[in-house]
Amino acid sequence: MSAVLDQQSATVAADTPIIELRNLSRRFEKKLDFAGKLAKRLGAPVREETVHAVDRVNLSIRKGEVVGLVGESGCGKSTLGRMVAGIMPPSEGTVLWRGQDVRSLNPAEAREAKLRTQMIFQDPYASLNPRMRVEDIVGEAPQFHGLVPARGFDTYVDEQMRRAGLDPAFKKRYPHQFSGGQRQRIGIARALAVKPEFIVCDEAVAALDVSIQAQILNLFMRLRQELDLTYLFISHDLSVVEHLSDRVVIMYLGRVVEQAPAEQVFARANHPYTVSLLSAVPRIEARKRAFTTVQGEIPSPLNPPSGCHFHPRCPHAHERCKVEVPALKEIAPGHFSACHLNDRA
Amino acid sequence: MSDVTLDKAPVAPKEETPFRRFVSEFMASKIAVGGLLVFSIIVVVALLAPWIAPQNPYDLGQIDIMDGRLEPGEVGGSGITHWLGTDDQGRDMLSGIMYGLRISLTVGAGSALIACLVGASLGLLAAYAGGRTDTVIMRLVDLQLSFPTILAALMILAFLGKGIMNVVIALVIVEWAYYARTVRGSALVERRREYIEAAQCLALPTRRILFRHLLPNCLPPLIVVGTIQVARAIALEATLSFLGLGVPITEPSLGLLIANGYEYMLSGKYWISFYPGVALLVTIVSINLMGDHLRDVLNPRLKK
Amino acid sequence: MTATLEVRDLQTHFFTRAGVVKAVDGVSFTVGRGKVLGLVGESGSGKSVTGFSIIGLVDAPGRVVGGQILYQGRNLAKISEEEMRQLRGNRIAMIFQDPMMTLNPVLRVDTQMIETVLAHEKVDRETARQRARDALGMVGIPSPDERLKSYPHQFSGGMRQRVAIAIALLHRPELIIADEPTTALDVTIQGQILAEVQKLAATTGTSLIWITHDLSVVAGLADDIAVMYAGRIVEEGEVSAVLDAPLHPYTVGLIGSVPSRNKRGEPLRQIPGMTPSLLKLPAGCAFRSRCARADEVCLQEPALFDLRPGQRARCFHPHLEEVAA
After folding, report:
1. CATH code for the domain of C65
2. B233: closest CA among B279, B290, B282, B284?
3. Which of C152, C170, C188 is the last residue of a domain?
4. Candidates A77, A177, A210, A288, partner chain C, best to mutate (most C CBs within 10 A)
5. Is the same domain home to C217 and C323?
6. How do residues B74-128 score in pLDDT, each as one tens digit?
7. How far apart are the C-alpha atoms of C18 and C70, rounded to whole Å?
8. Are A152 and A143 in contact (CB under 8 A)?
9. Same domain assignment for residues C256 and C275
10. Which among C121, C140, C170 is the end of a domain?
11. Would you say residue C96 lies in a domain?
12. Same domain, residue pair C230 and C282
């Protein structure tokens, strides 16, 4: 079964990336309303606030790849996932679908590109419409977009449910009648029903129990093989990402700090943030050990530190880190890191 | 190791659909069931009035002014026993109340329904579109709600003139804002949920997302507000008619019946105002009892 | 070794409309002085209800219906609400997953902490403030004097949890019950809090019950571990014993499904099926339907067997053979 990994590397090299992000940014602005402006005039400490949720991210994903996107809260990984999935417009930069800017596509092509990219969400309770039956949740979009003839509808829905590991006998039921793991399977069946090629998994197993997590992760891996899928797997859980990703991207406060093949990241992490993240992960092999810690808190994205965002917490920070934003540079084949320390060596 | 084994046995038993659970939880309150029972009787009586009422109070041929102001229980000239007495025109009060209920209920429910359609659509739009659309709609709502309801309704009726249709229009204008605000509130919460994002991912058109995904999930609070607003509309219509600005005098609603007997209250002929008042009270209280309990049942915060 | 707390055959049931849910059904364990017990289980296993039962915070329709919770020779299951209030927050403290369960959003941190001190001890306000400041310092909050004047919303999630822990520490309790206190936190922040808690447990001699679904967290923190499934402890023992050589098929499955225990890129070992509904548990072993080893013997209810020194499992077919290999 390890053929899953081998087979990919052979096919990917030639063609263009399935998804490419160029200088993608997303800002959230909190404008002051009338009352706010008035309060400001009167000297209240309010101001218009801007959060750079995603700050000039470049990333290309080849067909068949599994890219793990890791980061802590506020790093912008979910925002990035939503821009890739086409449900949140970027503030700046472009998303290329098979080499074409998605904004330059005509409506039919744009719809096609949107359907080819689907998303699996974190919360198996909030991600299903509580007032729809499973067959409608799964079958609505294929029916609406004419992907399935009216006569074949029932068997089509059955097939989607079975593929996600659900008994089609339950298709008349409502989401609340299912357990967390089963609901996540319904969400997967819904996404697969529109025949996507690319799937964004946003913390798709984070809300599940350990034993159910393994089931869903296995399902993801099986489906990838069966349907030749490409994944952007967003997670805060490094062990999950390590297990199924080919390549790992680490984000911190809106920026990519490191990007490398999975083995590289876990064996030879370069960026100090990645190193501290790896050391902070509790391991089941550990026994009564002293937990190593990264100093300091995650700064507020409203007011990120200057220069390298990680410098206040970094054990190796020097003057340059406080003023200059480090660029993402290739330090080994396929291994990128944004750290000034690499210039010193 | 393969994953082809299907997940069997859902957690909840099959019978437990959301609707059935709602019904069984509603039925758990004796007071609410009592309210529902009383209200159902009132509706049936109103519906069947032409067949069960002793006389048709709108048919002047059946009314004899000589029977005016008969006490409850007296037998009139036409041989009818007037169990609730008659008014100054000689109309049978029981029949008047039955027919009056028809008007009151039609006006109340009809205006609430139209106001609900208008308000819910605007509220939904405000929540989903956001920005300027939201601001304009919600400032209109604020404006509407800052006016005393009675005053606004009086002004509208003074402009439009009397008549059942005009009363309905006036009530819609003063009530829609409640629905708009309610729907916007719950739609703002619901639209941030992931199933809306999922629907966007599936490239479904906005209209479909609004009415098939968002609206059904905003219904519970709307039902609660709707129930209470029906009661409010009935009371408001009664008030307007009492003040002489509502329904025409030939087709009296409960409010007008009360007004008719008002001047005789102190001369001992209490029944002309009293019984229509009781009917109005019972109607409104029964609706409110249902509404209060509905709020408990449909409030997700009170769920365990 | 003296025990701080001994729980014997605890039973907490919820009397719902749909039937009686035996959330905790005969749980027994002992927490030694200065020891950390990891109480591990998935959702619905009864781990949190066990914690709430000890501190007397089970809400209706739930009720402790049987068993003993022995603390200093007293049975906490039988004492009055007033006596419980005296112990709670004083001798026994609880830390919740959501620190806002402890913190009042509209009061300044110093107000809350000083009130907490004064609630159980007769000291003047200045001493109380000192104690509050020391407690904040102990959990690693920088410039505690300044932070005391803040409101909870001015803290980040990790800092709030630290404040909640500081409040729990104010009276130097003998026992702290922590219910998934780091689950909602980021990895680096979780690491910081675990480090602080570990230090505190070692220096103050406070006993700790750490309730979590995450085996990896208790692996590095706890002395003993108890694994719960469907309201019962299915395996207990020393951390190394249970994690290195698990006996119960459920524990074996849980540990096996952790990604780092699997070869990269290969299917994870998984436990089939899902947690049974507590409303209609089948007779016998509750794990039967998901267990590869189950046979007709498992239709009987297994007892918690002493299978190795210091390690017990509720199973007729434990994984004993692995120890030889």
Report:
1. 3.40.50.300
2. B284
3. C170
4. A210
5. yes
6. 787 777 788 888 887 788 888 889 999 999 999 999 999 999 999 999 999 999 8
7. 32
8. no
9. yes
10. C170
11. no
12. yes
* Number of separate domains in chain C: 2
For residue A114, give how far its alpha carbon lies from the nearest alpha carbon of chain B (Å): 7
Alpha carbon separation from B50 to B56, B104, B164, B234, C224 (Å, rounded) = 7, 15, 19, 21, 80
pTM of the model: 0.84
DSSP, res A166: B
DSSP reduced 3-state for C155:
coil
Query: Distance from C312 to chain A by nearest Cα, in Å?
Result: 20
Using only C-alpha atoms, what is the Rg of chain B? 24
Cβ contact (<8 Å) for B3 and A140? no
- Please report the pLDDT score of residue B17 as a whole number: 65
Q: Which domains does chain B have, with CATH numbers?
A: 28-46+89-299 (1.10.3720.10)
Range of the domain at C130: 101-170
Same domain, C5 and C154: no
- Long-range contacts, A288-291 (Cβ 8 Å, 24+): A288/C220, A288/C221, A288/C223, A288/C239, A289/C220, A290/C195, A290/C198, A291/C191, A291/C192, A291/C194, A291/C195, A291/C198, A291/C220, A291/C221
Highest mean pLDDT among B22-26, B227-231, C78-82, C208-212: C208-212
Task: Kindly determine whether residue A243 and residue C255, on different chains, have CB atoms separated by under 8 Å.
Answer: no
3-state class (DSSP) for residue C26: strand
Superfamily per CATH, domain A3-32+49-344: P-loop containing nucleotide triphosphate hydrolases (3.40.50.300)
**DSSP H or E run through C9:** strand C3-16
What residues of C are in contact with residue A263 (Cβ under 8 Å)? 264
The contacts of residue C225 (CB under 8 Å, 6+ apart) are C37, C38, C40, C218, C236, C237, C238, C239, C242, C243
pLDDT (mean) for A314-333: 92
